[in-house]
Specification:
Layout lengths: L1 H11 L15 E7 L14 H15 L5 E7 L8 H4 L3 E9 L2 H9 L9 H12 L6 E7 L10 H9 L5 E8 L3 H13 L1 E7 L5 H13 L7 E2 L11 E2 L2 E7 L3 E9 L4 E9 L7 E9 L5 E10 L1 H4 L6 E6 L7 E12 L6 E10 L41 H28 L1
Parallel strand pairs: 1-2, 1-4, 4-5, 5-6, 7-9, 8-10
Antiparallel strand pairs: 2-3, 9-16, 10-15, 11-14, 11-16, 12-13, 12-15
Length: 427
């Protein structure tokens, strides 16, 4: 096993030139594009909104690295909106997620004609299957010029359901010349899906917004959450509640955090290491979850390589460690280690997503910044109730004999006092 690990490490620490043109298929994106009837409206730049979408895709494919994993889902392109029932089923995976074929992608988009309704909810529900469940970040990028007009399903609820299916699945939205009402719905979708919302009023800017979202999906991973400083000593780390936190770590270092777990909850800790894109080399990266008594609960290990070394898209490594069931509550420990290897000695960003799940609660996206928790108090001598202890000494006379002796002595003292008083009275 150690020999295999050594070989794997060696492969990851080869010079950067060995990986200069490789494609990291872990991270993949799916464009969900609106081709409804409203996309035929004038975009204000001499063409329609659909023309703007076609131009944007043409611009984007020239910016993406060759082989970038991408797919295309289209809705509203085939069935006229007059047939509501059928039009609301009009959503199709036009190009399955796979290595980028620029001609195929631009050809599919250029052939579109705005025709039907806007079944956003149904389209979103199909995206997890489109992206698959393999390891890696999965990004949905929805481009629409209006809100869903096919509910149910409600598109915000659909986004929440999709987001619950994986810590690494997000939905971002680009609204193209949308009304205020549609904007509210699209913002809700992005928020529920753990992604971002971009508003585009100038149709000529659509390509830039789409390119920015795709670049983020493949290369840039900015950590978010409350900034904390893990310690190098087990048990001394900051006390974390549920939510997102961020820290940094360097090669040969370790970080410890304490989790304040409510009684009856399952623990899930997701730790993402994000090396700088310009860094090179590779190192062993591992995450541990320990119980309050110090026993191992979960352990995960991988190989973290710098962005320059791994691929032209960069590299992000995520570990998820968890308890198998509900706990009795109290403190658990999370340890993060960046061990052997030759990853360049630069700070590596860490993002920690902490969840405490009730019985039957599904794993979802951690989006809110967490707060430092109040440590669980450790009982001290001052906290213990005072007790009076009675100690019997078996080496002395029995207790009843002592009492009898005391009584006799008292009687004799009384008689002596009476005799003395009587003599004084007689004189």
């Amino acid at each position: 096993m150690r020999v295999l690990l050594f070989v794997a490490v060696a492969l990851f620490v080869l010079p950067a030139t060995a990986y200069g043109q490789a494609t990291d298929t872990r991270n993949r994106a799916l464009i969900v594009l609106d081709s409804s009837k409203s996309m035929n409206k004038d975009a204000g730049n001499g063409g329609t909104r659909l023309d703007a979408a076609k131009q944007a895709v043409s611009e984007v494919v020239d910016r993406l690295p060759a082989g970038a994993p991408v797919g295309l889902r289209i809705y509203g392109s085939k069935v006229a909106e007059t047939s509501r029932e059928e039009a609301c089923k009009d959503t199709e995976l036009t190009i399955p997620v796979g290595p980028l074929d620029k001609e195929q992608l631009t050809g599919a988009v250029n052939a579109l004609n705005g025709k039907g309704r806007t079944p956003i909810g149904n389209s979103l529900l199909a995206t997890p299957d489109d992206l698959g469940s393999a390891e890696g970040r999965r990004s949905v990028i929805l481009v629409s010029d209006g809100g869903d007009n096919c509910a149910p399903p409600d598109p915000c609820e659909a986004a929440r359901e999709v987001a619950r299916q994986g810590l690494e699945l997000t939905i971002s939205v680009v609204g193209l010349q949308v009304s205020e009402r549609a904007r509210r719905q699209l913002r809700c979708i992005a928020s529920a899906g753990g992604g971002s919302y971009s508003d585009v009023q100038d149709a000529g800017d659509l390509g830039d917004e789409l390119a920015a979202l795709l670049a983020r999906a493949y290369r840039a991973y900015e950590p978010s959450g409350t900034e904390v400083e893990g310690t190098t000593a087990k048990g001394d780390g900051p006390n974390l509640s549920a939510g997102l936190f961020q820290d940094t770590i360097t090669v040969g270092d370790q970080r410890w955090y304490t989790l304040e777990v409510p009684q009856g909850r399952r623990v899930l800790a997701s730790v993402t290491a994000i090396p700088p894109y310009e860094s090179g080399g590779g190192s062993t990266f591992r995450t541990e979850l320990l119980a309050t008594d110090g026993g191992d609960v979960a352990f995960e290990q991988g190989l973290l390589s710098g962005g320059r070394t791994a691929t032209e898209l960069g590299r992000v490594e995520t570990h998820s460690v968890r308890t198998s069931g509900a706990t009795d509550g109290g403190q658990y420990l999370v340890g993060v280690f960046l061990d052997s290897g030759n990853l360049e000695d630069v700070p590596v960003a860490l993002e920690l997503g902490i969840q405490f799940l009730a019985e039957g609660e599904e794993v979802g996206l951690t989006r809110e910044a967490g707060e430092l928790a109040t440590p669980t108090p450790t009982p001290t001598a001052a906290d213990q109730p005072t007790q009076t202890l009675t100690v019997e000494d078996d080496s002395g006379p029995p207790g009843w004999l002592i009492l009898v002796g005391v009584a006799i002595a008292g009687a004799l003292i009384g008689l002596a006092a009476a005799f003395i008083l009587g003599r004084r009275a007689a004189t």
